Amino acid sequence: MIRIAKTLPENTAALVYSPINRRYLTGFESSVGFLMIAKNDCCLYLDGRYILAAKNTVKACRVEIFSKISDSFNEFVAKNNIKTLFCEDSLTVAELRRFSDMLPDTEVTADCDLRKNIDALRETKTDYEVECIVKAQRIAEKAFEETLNFIKVGVSEREIAAELEYRMKMYGSQMPSFDTIAVSGEKSAMPHGVPDGKLINSGQFLTIDFGAVYQGYHSDMTRTVAVGYATDKMQEVYNTVLKAQIEAEKTVKAKVQCSAVDKAAREVIAAAGYGKYFTHSTGHGIGLEIHEAPTVSHLSEATLQVGNIISNEPGIYIDGEFGVRIEDMLLVCEKGCKNLTNCEKSLIIL
């Protein structure tokens, strides 16, 4: 909060409206709320459903209940002599107009710099955030290792996804990081395929992409396993993806271009003759949201920083045959990275 306040000119304030950014800056989750930040003052306004819990947990700012938000806003503006109120530029035109109507004597403007400043803070994880993400990952790994015993010929993709999500919940996950992907055979060639009643057959790949959530922080991993047996081509493709993933990890450290990480993975896959089958970026940031900055793509202009947590997930997807993806999470360090994923990467044949 202090770092946001330092970016504000005199007689200005910031209104943080989005639930994720409110959560990040205050540590408190609510479906409704408004965070006002001025040079020397900040206040989280909540309705009666959250006020007691927030007053017991929020330390970064004042917490007040509102019955009429326009009155609360005007009191804050008057107290801090605010002439301009900067809002996140993710607000709709209608929402921006609403806040302008509440504050007729204050200039209310959408400000992309406010969002960029918050995004920049969120990119670099604190020790606490890293601990939460690692905890989420350990929950996911434990659930996955036990779910492997459930996977067999005749079980459906939907049943596998449900079993995995159930076990993550039982081990402490608030919710899945996203809708679990569990796709087999030809469907494994769809990076974001949806599990359904399709039954698992022998000699097929099963790709599982999943994650847990702990204290609001997400984990993300993918493993591709074979059921019964794997053909020579299946093993060749799997080992190519694994080599690409390892080469990408070797490049990860502070001050390296995200595009260079993507290039390291892509070159391995292209050299093996499968370049056209790698159809997405190599990774993305992970935190309070499953997809955050930075993006690890050939199009990215971002540079890795100490404290970034990114996914490393190259893949090969051959339409009509099968697909393979292997994904870990990496913590960017000054002279390399730390792999936060403790799960076997060599091909598992069940």
Describe this entry's structure for a reader.
The chain is 35% helix and 23% strand. The protein is of the alpha+beta class and 350 residues long. The strands form 6 sheets. Strands 4-3-2-1-5-6 form a 6-stranded mixed beta sheet. A 3-stranded antiparallel beta sheet has the order 7-8-11, with helices on one face. The N and C termini lie far apart (50 Å).
SSE order: HEHEEHEHEHEHHHEEEEEHHEEEEEEE
Largest sheet: 6 strands, mixed
The whole-angstrom Rg is 23 Å
Total number of beta strands: 18
State the distance separating the first and last CA atoms. 50 Å
Q: Average pLDDT, to the nearest integer?
A: 96
Q: Structural class of the secondary structure composition?
A: alpha+beta
Helix share bin:
25-40%
- Shape type: elongated
Counting DSSP H or I runs of 4 or more residues, the number of helices is 10
Within the largest sheet, what's the order of strands? 4-3-2-1-5-6
What percent of residues are in strands? 15-25%
Low-confidence stretches: none
Layout of SSEs?
Elements (H helix, E strand, L loop, with lengths): L1 H5 L5 E5 L2 H8 L7 E5 L2 E6 L4 H7 L4 E4 L3 H12 L3 E5 L4 H10 L4 E5 H12 L3 H21 L9 H14 L10 E4 L19 E7 L2 E2 L2 E2 L2 E7 L4 H20 L6 H14 L11 E3 L6 E5 L12 E4 L2 E4 L3 E4 L2 E6 L2 E4 L11
Parallel strand pairs: 1-5, 3-4, 5-6
Antiparallel strand pairs: 1-2, 2-3, 7-8, 8-11, 9-10, 12-13, 14-17, 15-16, 17-18
Helix pairs in contact: 7-8, 9-10
Quick overview of this protein structure:
The chain has 350 residues and is α+β, with helices and mostly antiparallel strands. The protein has 10 helices and 18 strands.
